[in-house]
């Protein structure tokens, strides 16, 4: 393995992955993995990239992008072992796709377009690609593995392209009120599975509202999570200064500290 240090970085990474997957001399854990077992790690690494960006931690972002790249190398290695494709094929496929989807950069089309027009052109090209793959349904290739909130938004966006959408926000707000009433009624009278169904309906229409407001619901919820974390940390710090823990406090005290955190701009 001494020669690994002399390889270009990507080739070095590919060689490391091959060594880890060697059935005789490799790492037992790496050898034991499959596409299905690695997929959750791939999703997790993508979110850690997003987290580093959210915190503007550029040094950490470099490491997180490396972790995400390693996931691609891992999947490509397993595919190569199965005789499906290899890392070069992956790189060639994405390069070809980017060239095909940017005729205003790599082709004859003018690039004198707004970003919105270019998004529309991108969607037109993707629709043609879906048709070429013989996926006739409008929603057929919205990935099942996406986080549920993100998938809800994408399903609604795809349906909107063929006119299945409210033309303005007011009906969406009315639908939220309707779904909230149905959830309250379900909580009082229906079994747990029906309560879950009504909760899902409310979350689904909330994702639709985000789309109409041009807000990314995943980003909005991540920021809300971060804000909750900051404010709760403030509560814990203030309680510690009083010689207490959260479990020693009560809702009234913690709620007052929450208001203080909010007033402090946290």
From TrEMBL:
Domain called NTP pyrophosphohydrolase MazG-like: residue spans: 33-106, 173-231
Top class in the EC scheme: hydrolase
Record-listed E.C. numbers: 3.6.1.8
Swiss-Prot/TrEMBL catalytic activity: ATP + H2O = AMP + diphosphate + H(+)
PANTHER family: NUCLEOSIDE TRIPHOSPHATE PYROPHOSPHOHYDROLASE (PTHR30522:SF0)
InterPro entries: MazG-like_dom (IPR004518), NTP-PPase_MazG-like_C (IPR048011), NTP-PPase_MazG-like_N (IPR048015), NTP_PyrPHydrolase_MazG (IPR011551)
Lineage: Bacteria, Pseudomonadati, Pseudomonadota, Alphaproteobacteria, Rhodobacterales
GO terms classed as biological process: dATP catabolic process; dGTP catabolic process; dTTP catabolic process; dUTP catabolic process; response to stress; TTP catabolic process; UTP catabolic process
Protein name: Nucleoside triphosphate pyrophosphohydrolase
MF (Gene Ontology): ATP diphosphatase activity
Family of this protein: Belongs to the nucleoside triphosphate pyrophosphohydrolase family.
Domain of life: Bacteria
